[in-house]
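Hi all, long-time lurker, first post. I run a small reading group and we've been trying to get comfortable going from sequence to structure in the token notation. Rather than ask abstract questions, I figured I'd post a concrete chain and ask someone more experienced to write out its structure so we can walk through it together at our next meeting. Sequence below, copied exactly:
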Amino acid sequence: MFESAEIGHKISKTAYREAVPPLRAALLGAQVDLHENKSFPVVVLISGQDGAGKGETINVLYQWMDPRFISTLAFSEPSDEERERPPMWRFWRSLPPKGRIGIFAGSWYSESIRQRIQGEISLKELDARADQINRFEAMLVNEGALVLKFWFHLTKDAQTKRLKALESDPRTAWRVTKWNWDRLKTYDELQNVAGHLLRMTNTHWAPWVVVEGADDRYRSLTVAQTLLAALQSRLARAKSLELPAAPIVRVDTDGRTVLTEMDLTLALDDKTYERELAKWQGRLAELVRDARFKGRSLVCAFEGADAAGKGGAIRRIGAALDARQYQVTPVAAPTEEERAQPHLWRFWRHLPRRGHLAIFDRTWCGRVLVERVEGFCSENDWLRAYGEINDFEHEMADAGVIVVKFWLQISQEEQLRRFKEREKVEFKRFKITEEDWRNREKWGAYQQAICDMVERTSTGNAPWTLVEANDKNHARVKILRTLCERLQAELEGKFKPGAGTKRKRPKS
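-- Answer (accepted) --
Happy to help. Here is the structure in token form:
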């Protein structure tokens, strides 16, 4: 992987002076087009060995381009805030919007390389990280991003020479510390680990560019020319790269689905409801105050048909909690800021810290529901979204986030009754819109999309709980009970991830 970066690449001063002016002009022109079109973001990863010129190259790009439309994100040890969330959280929240260039000095590769060198993870675990990175970068590219990855390489002798030169110059001596010299001792390990990881993640949608870092002029021209060629090529292409997605395979040829098999007649009388509601609200209050919950966090995801009772169920959960401990995020059509980012970005940014809860009223599954049915995204977009949703939830679970998902199902007849009731009650009229009535005409398409969502995104760590919601009493108690039982099992270490959707009503 590094052979071509060990042959002594050099650029003369004369050739460099001749190449820079037209290159700068072309880069600025491409950057202006990018900013004006705002059709895609550019993600540039600058990685490599100490002393290989990462910082110098970033400074050159700032000198040659308009710095107003470039952001540089430097990542080292995660902060306390970052440690309390999934590892990828800090990278998601730093992604550049469409029309801008984001330069990552340190990236989602750095920690995996460090952990492997220090023996904290096995080669098998490193390969699993590589698979995860490949899926993340494929998602970025499919969402329209241009992803460029540079690895700056030096031979061991060149790195030693480089560090000595930096250390001997008063202007740069501050950049070389004992840590850098200690890192030099692990040169061979870094070569093995980085070489392996680069090979595993050298994909056609986000390939690595290995640059020899010994000669400043060669390094600067190589990176700038590569960036320019990629920008010009991407600007000339109408659409982003799309990976093939397998079509949905129908499994309901007999007319039976997870939704048709639900018993929507389940109900609780008011007296039983009041007793059960108080019981499970009290239990939830105890569980979120349990000392063990301080090391975990909880994400409650609510989806359901219009007027299925999501808001009422969420209010019953909130009544058991300290308002300082949870946040409700209502999800509607994406804002302009959110449309400039990958579709999961607006959900990553609302993930809770440890000891806290996040409740989503509508969720990241909107892409495979309303966006699919209403044609707000392409078929390829919603087909690949199933895998991206599973990756998102897997990363949350891996970081200790307890993910509990509810689908509230009502019949068409019950929905019609509730719609008419909302029109009659003054303080409920705001809940009913023309869009709600129009969506009823697509009931069949939505039911099929729901079944596909459940089939493809109900996983062991984040199963769907299907809630019979024709009776609000029954639905609210089932949701609270399910939430408490899951939370208790997680805190006691007794939760056993299964493969199926939770359909049965929990026992009293």
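A couple of things your group might point at:
Strands lie at 42-48, 70-74, 101-105, 146-153, 208-212, 297-304, 326-330, 357-361, 401-409, 464-468.
Residues 13-37 form the longest helix (25 residues).
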